[in-house]
Design goal:
Elements (H helix, E strand, L loop, with lengths): L31 E2 L2 E2 H5 L1 E4 H6 L21 H19 L3 E5 H4 L6 H22 L2 E6 L18 H20 L4 E4 L5 E2 L7 H22 L5 E3 L9 E2 L4 H10 L6 E6 H6 L4 H10 L3 E6 L17 H13 L8 E3 L10 H28 L1 H9 L6 H7 L5 H11 L10 H11 L1
Parallel strand pairs: 3-4, 3-12, 4-5, 5-6, 6-8, 8-10, 10-11, 11-12
Antiparallel strand pairs: 1-2, 7-9
Helix pairs in contact: 3-5, 5-6, 6-7, 10-11, 11-12
The structure holds D-xylulose and cobalt (II) ion.
Length: about 425
């Protein structure tokens, strides 16, 4: 076992008045909120890629973190060291879940066969570590965006050999995820889109992406993988346009294919912002459409228009998101994966711990606030009130399609209906929400 961090004992809940730097002030895993423990509500996961793979580079400069495993000649030894540190991280943070891309955990080698063998070897190590520590896999996913073979797309590549290669890669990654008891399988289409429309057959590419999704769903049933396949909406970056633009766009694909039972969504805060939506909008819409799955938790920067993937620390913002998650009934197989990275100047190992602890505390506070909103019920009552006139038999019949356009028109003309506008009370509601925070 390595000792990467200065901390030796797991971070503990000490309450809001503690003077300790590394302690939970709000996240108390066993504390009951609305009938479930905080740990059951939040289902935190540490991600492999930002935590252990990204070296701190930006478009103008390279590695700032200088981690030992990025400078080792033996790549499998480096992969084993990363596995040790992942479990050290989970243990210190008292986090139950982790998530990975195949390429995060093992080196590519010189062929897909070699890559698969490397991934399996590390998964075998995970299996032992998971059994010993009670840690679980929230989801696995295949990295089909880093290697140059994917530069023109993965499943949407003009070259069918790339499509077939992707099928082979996902098959193995889904097998490994299944073998480790992964609760979901994620597909983020980083290269499923285009750089320029003028060299792209958009209809053909969409057919390819849909066929690929069917293949994965068919295979999931074949091997008895019970969790959902999660699409992860994102509008652009790395491509100019990604086909999984936002929740609405993904839902259209899922519904057109009739896959609502098997395919849900993994919603990321920063991706919502890039698509021109709020985080809570994307959660609420996914829930309304029956495809809410999981969360990639992070925070975008409202000034810079790219995926900054900062740790989420803004309690009022998280409160609205948490309220939508509670209204959606909470997580089933999903959870809160920290798809977030420390800044490139945060070069100390312990910065990783501070980032997670701070964000877990922010989520816990948001959960407590949102629970107050639910328990109090004032907001729900206000919203229900705005729609209450729909409950009359007449208006229910109109909504259920039992009245035609001309029948409605005749009714309006004969009864002299004159709609009476009512205040939306936005400022009152905004103040009410502040009162819970
Ligand atoms: C990229 C992103 C990915 C997915 C998994 O923006 O969010 O890391 O979460 O491929
Ligand atoms: Co993500």
């Amino acid at each position: 076992m390595t000792q990467f961090y200065s901390l030796k004992e797991p971070v503990k809940y000490e309450g809001p008045n503690t003077t300790k730097d590394l302690a939970f002030r709000w996240y108390n895993p066993t504390q009951k909120v609305l009938g479930k423990t905080m740990a059951e509500h939040l289902r935190f996961a540490v991600c492999y890629w930002h935590t252990l793979c990204w070296p701190g580079l930006d478009p103008f400069g390279g590695d700032t973190f200088n981690r030992q495993w990025h400078h080792m000649a033996d790549e499998m030894a480096a992969a084993r060291m990363k596995a040790d540190i992942m479990f050290e991280t989970l243990n210190l943070l008292n986090v139950d879940f982790f998530c990975f891309h195949d390429l995060d955990i093992a080196p590519e080698g010189n062929s897909l066969k070699e890559f698969n063998d490397n991934v399996t070897a590390i998964a075998n190590i995970f299996e032992k570590k998971m059994a010993a520590s009670n840690k679980k896999l929230l989801w696995g996913t295949a990295n089909m965006f880093s290697n140059r073979r994917f530069m023109a797309g993965a499943a949407s590549n003009p070259d069918p050999d790339v499509f077939a290669y992707c099928a082979a890669q996902v098959k193995h990654c889904l097998d490994v995820t299944h073998g480790l008891g992964g609760e979901n399988y994620v597909m983020w289409g980083g290269r499923e889109g285009y750089e320029t429309l003028i060299n792209t057959n958009i209809g053909h590419e969409l057919d390819q992406v849909k066929r690929f999704l069917s293949l994965v769903v068919e295979y999931k049933h074949k091997i008895g993988f019970k969790g959902p396949i999660l699409l992860e909406p994102k509008p652009q970056e790395p491509t100019k346009h990604q086909y999984d633009y936002d929740v609405a766009t993904c839902y259209n694909t899922i519904a057109a294919m009739g896959l609502q039972k098997d395919v849900k969504l993994n919603i990321e805060q920063n991706h919502a912002i890039l698509a021109g939506h709020t985080f809570e909008h994307e959660i609420a819409l996914a829930s309304a459409l029956g495809v809410f799955g999981s969360i990639d938790l992070n925070r975008g920067d409202y000034q810079s228009g790219w995926d900054t993937d900062q740790f989420a620390m803004n309690v009022p913002e998280l409160t609205l998101a948490m309220y939508e998650i509670l209204k959606a009934g909470g997580f089933t197989t999903g959870g809160m994966n920290f798809d977030a990275k420390i800044r490139r100047q945060s070069i100390d190992a312990d910065d990783i711990l501070h980032a997670h602890v701070g964000s877990m505390d922010a989520c816990a506070r948001a959960l407590l606030n949102a629970a107050k909103m639910v328990e109090d019920g004032k907001l729900a009552k206000l919203v229900a009130g705005r729609y209450s006139k729909w409950n009359t038999p007449q208006n229910q019949a109109m909504l259920a399609g039992q009245e035609s356009l001309d029948a409605i028109a005749a009714r309006v003309l004969s009864s002299g209906i004159e709609p009476q506008p009512k205040s939306g009370r936005q400022e009152y509601i905004e103040s009410l929400i502040n009162s819970y925070c």
